[in-house]
Design goal:
Elements: E1 5-10, H1 16-27, E2 30-33, H2 34-47, H3 58-64, E3 70-75, E4 80-85, E5 88-89, H4 97-107, H5 110-124, E6 129-133, H6 136-140, E7 146-151, H7 154-168, H8 174-190, E8 203-206, H9 212-228
Parallel strand pairs: 1-6, 1-7, 2-6, 7-8
Antiparallel strand pairs: 3-4, 4-5
Helix pairs in contact: 1-9, 2-4, 2-5, 4-8, 7-8
Bound molecules: cytidine-5'-diphosphate (CDP).
Residues 12-13, 17, 34-35, 38-39, 103-104, 107, 133-136, 184, 188 line the site of cytidine-5'-diphosphate.
């Protein structure tokens, strides 16, 4: 059976990665979390002192980009690939609200995007890939056989992300998470390079009132229909 490329884009915390992992597992496809790569560069920028609450040394970060090596290693126990920065597993470190608060600024830098998009295209060039992000159907894989665009209300998304962070044991407030979700929506949708927009041929799915099972079933049907074409 031919292996297709599935591009899942959408706003933050819309459950893209949850359904992308489920679909990849079901079809034996590779799942690539492109957001994890932008988070990894952001974590690097924070560690190296290029970004904090009061300053952002864009030129300094861009100059050091060559030394940023991002890779994924499949973790059998977890059932998905974890992200590594220069051989260190940073899967947990990149999921903090602090990283979320800086990531959209880092992701707006064209040099960062150029580097990561090249790597994303190399990871998916054989097909049989489910990749989620903001520009997968528009920039990374404009010819993807199936494109989805996920939305949900900002409040629903903030509640989901707040629960995830609390479950991890992070000390965050719902208000801070909602503010982050709204700020990232704005920056991601309004940046000059590869803004978050729905590809013309993407199917929009609002999952505000869908259970995980309903969402999976709907998307599974869409994938099967695409495979039959
Ligand atoms: O999981 P969540 O929805 O919070 O976001 P993510 O997928 O981890 O992405 C984090 C951030 O990376 C986004 O808010 C974007 O600023 C950036 N990103 C991007 O610009 N392009 C992508 N293809 C993926 C993520």
């Amino acid at each position: 059976m031919t292996k297709i490329t599935i591009a899942i884009d959408g706003f933050s915390s819309t459950g893209k990665s949850t359904v992308a992992k489920q679909i990849a597992k079901h079809f034996g496809y590779v799942y690539v979390d492109s957001g994890a790569m932008y988070r990894a560069v952001t974590y690097f920028a924070m560690q190296e002192g290029f970004i904090d609450a009061s300053h952002f040394n864009v030129d300094g970060l861009v100059e050091q980009l060559e030394s940023v090596n991002i890779s994924f290693k499949f973790n059998e126990a977890l059932g998905f690939a974890e992200v590594y920065l220069n051989a260190t597993n940073i899967e947990n470190e990149i999921r903090t609200l602090e990283v979320s608060n800086f990531v959209s600024k880092v992701a707006a830098i064209s040099e960062v995007r150029l580097k990561l998009v090249e790597q994303q295209q190399a990871l998916g060039n054989q097909g049989g890939v489910v990749m989620d992000g903001r520009d997968i159907g528009t920039v990374v894989f404009p010819d993807a056989e199936l494109k989805l665009f996920m939305t949900a209300s900002a409040e629903t998304r903030a509640e989901r992300r707040f629960s995830e962070l609390i479950e991890r044991g992070d000390a965050v407030t719902y208000e801070a998470v909602l503010k982050n979700v709204q700020e990232r929506d704005y920056i991601d949708s309004n940046r000059e390079d590869s803004p978050l927009i729905k590809a013309k041929d993407a199917i929009q799915i609002d999952n505000s009132h869908m259970s995980l099972q309903e969402q999976f079933d709907k998307i599974l049907t869409l994938v099967n229909t695409t495979l039959e074409k």
